Amino acid sequence: MENRDAIPTSVRHLFWDCDPDELSWSEHSDFVIRRLLAEGGWSELSWLRERLGDQGLARWLTAHEGRGLTPRQLRFWQVVLRLEPGSVDVWVERARQGTWAARTHG
User: Which domain does 88 fall in, by range?
Assistant: First the structure.
């Protein structure tokens, strides 16, 4: 029987900087989602979409204002998930300005 809280083998290679056995969906979902969105390929993103559903993923991206993603990634998810263009425009501009601008101006 599958443990729904465990991070599946198919995505563990993306967590090279930590012990994937120590990760659980219930405790680390924000970290897992952000890592998969930023670094995942088609199979990892497919697993994430199955896990959250597109509405859940859209809610997560909106709640986190796309932080941690590149402008290109943000535009991709805007199209795929039909996110509000005005909101994504703000996220893209912040991503283009970089971390330092976000810390000093926002």
Answer: 9-105
